[in-house]
Amino acid sequence: MALLRSPAQAASRGIGQPVRRKEDARLVTGRGAFGDDINLPGQAYAAFVRSPHGHARLRAIDAREALKAPGVIAVFTGADVARAGLRPIPHRPVPTNPHEVPLKSPDGSPFFVSTHASLPVERARFAGEPVAMVVAETVAAARDGAERVHVEYEPLPAVVTAAAALAPGAPALWDERPSNVCVETEAGNAPAVDAAFARAAHVVQLETRVNRVTGVPMEPRTALGAWDPATGRYTLYAGSGGVQRIRVDLAGTLGVEEGAVRVVARDIGGNYGTRNSSYPEYGLVTWAARALGRPVKWTADRREALLTDYHARDLVSHAELALDADGTFLAFRALNTSNVGAYTLSFIPLAKGIAISSSVYHVPVSAVRGRAVLTNTSPTTPYRAAGRPEMLFVTERLIDLAARRHGFDRVALRRCNLVPAAAMPYRNPLGLVYDSGDYTAALDRAVALADWAGFEARRAEARRRGRYRGIGVANYLELNTGDPREQAQITVQPEGRVDVVVGTLSAGQGHETSFAQCIVDWLGVDLDQVHLLTGDSDVATYGGGSHSGRSMRLAAVVMSKATTQIIEQGRRIAAWLLEAAEADIEFSAGRFTVKGTDRSVTVFEAAAATRRAHAPEWMREPLAGSSREVMSIPSYPYGCAVCEVEVDPETGVVEIARWTCVDDVGRAVNPLILHGQTHGGIAAGVGQALMELCAYDGDGQMLSASFMDYALPRADALPSFTTEISEVPSTTNPLGLRGGGEGGTTPALGAVVNAIVDALAELGVEHIEMPATPERVWTAIREAGTRR
After folding, report:
1. How many CB atoms lie within 10 A of CB 787?
2. How far from 785 is each of 645, 649, 778, CA to CA, in Å?
3. pTM higher than the cut 0.85
4. pLDDT tens, position by position, 637-663
5. Which of 331, 481, 483, 522 stands the most exposed, by the fewest C-beta atoms within 10 Å?
6. How many other CB atoms are there within 10 angstroms of residue 34's CB atom?
7. Helix (H) and strand (E) counts for the chain?
8. Cα–Cα dist 392/759, whole Å
């Protein structure tokens, strides 16, 4: 089912049109305002002393030599800031959306939520954790001072993997918690699942670890804090996913009312979720600005970023799928263990992975247990489709294993188990209600676009060149929720400008263009007349930022309602201006017209009338609209990806040869931007599947804290993509939007590994762990040969 658009819409620059991003001209000519571009008069600079140990007791910190260094102003330790009243960061890790599968302990006991001090007093719990802050006149002086701070550490045993954290006698990270397990949860119907497995003709099992990665934004983190004694207010300039959340967290850390805090973020050089949570540096530089009476700025270097940017993924799954003799899915069960790192920032990836573990397939019964464990690693947080890529990797690998072991066609097995469009709305075995979708159409279209039928000829040609070629497919489903609060305030300015204030924040998604396209459609103004105002908590006071595919999905609803108010107010104004009855005024293409006449005024002329000296009292308010909504109901983007790879058996190098995907976003506001977001998402997924890894040794030392060691995909490692957008309107919001931007990532892990295994199946390779590095692939080939 596709959305039909009128000829007038098709000719416009409004909704549905592939309009080039208008913000790009500013960004590519050096007129952006990223974190390090912002400076304040008289600012000092911070540098941090960071723990070289994965786990260590802080015996003593001696700052005397540092204070003697030229330019050093002050040195602060955890004891200093604790005495001054700086509180722990108020992370809220437990999901609360009423429409998701809740995390619940089998015995009803509460989950363990750790404190997260900006500077620890007693123990450092991961390598790179800040233990002291040096403030100086220059960046160089601050870094020199940090090198002169002497810290007496008592190294302690560390645990870095989930298995190590769960082992009997494992050292505990927190004295208040003798076990490193902070969450135990379960969902589903375990007795029914056990019964289904007992009668199954086929059972496949998989134990796998989904590798730990990090977002690696182009722009490293920055934080600039200021204090105004005249107003008693703090200001923090820091890039993030949303200024409102950071304002709440910062107020909690500083121990002040939210009104005493302002957070500002201009252009954001990448996010994907790793910047959405609060960091210790935010509270520290803002507190130090008041303590020292001058602004304090910090900018991370790349090593600091790789060490201390919050990480993601890191899931161990033990999963099983039961099928009958015809290949019909009977039941699914799993135990998922999430490594949350040293502090409990978020349990959302664990929860969402459990909730959508059956994906787009009809699985009658399911039972999933979940655990979250603490380790001596950087904390993990939601990152690009949090929890879904990990779990759907497991599901799609199980389906391929079932097909290969029991003689089913991989595509046919998936097709016969998809939830049919006629079954919508569909309740999955854990209780989520999928509102709409045609999963079979997406699969069939992706397979056709990828020329699956012609693949064997391409495989044979590759073998003649000494290469092994494989093809893999993976379906996916998103569970998009996020902060449910959003607000839009839209004002028509007589000067010919429409100001749009919303609580989201772009990190490269093109909001200045796509949001403006909505206003173009609804108010009939030109694209360049729309000005988006975000990223300042004093201006956009209410909202949820950007994450979980929520920005357009929620902002469009409140913007639509605000423009409806503007049109109604404008109709009354136009009636007064044109001396007509309000019922006779119609609005179209930016003009209010008396029906059946050529008498009209533009929306900007109506706005100007509110400033007339002789206007009636009721007209003297600006032409504006405002809408504030709480929208908790999820949306469910879905789609299918097909990947082809070639493997060099002599080196183990994997080359992505072709990529095809179909993504259903409900309604595409700007297809050009959506295709671009899909391309970036594919690159992120391929990077994780083939090369990215936050690697630690057994003592908690990070082995990949530079670009010499943390591998990223480059343009020459990726082919041109074939991407197509499907538009089956969602029924969970009035505009039919599902959300876009994460679909490229979610199926990528399964599609890549399924393709690699298909390439090497004739050699006896049945599974490859991620990242599928050349060494790992080469080893799998050799080990398979030995077994044969």
Report:
1. 9
2. 20, 11, 11
3. yes
4. 999 999 999 999 999 999 999 999 999
5. 522
6. 17
7. 21, 28
8. 21
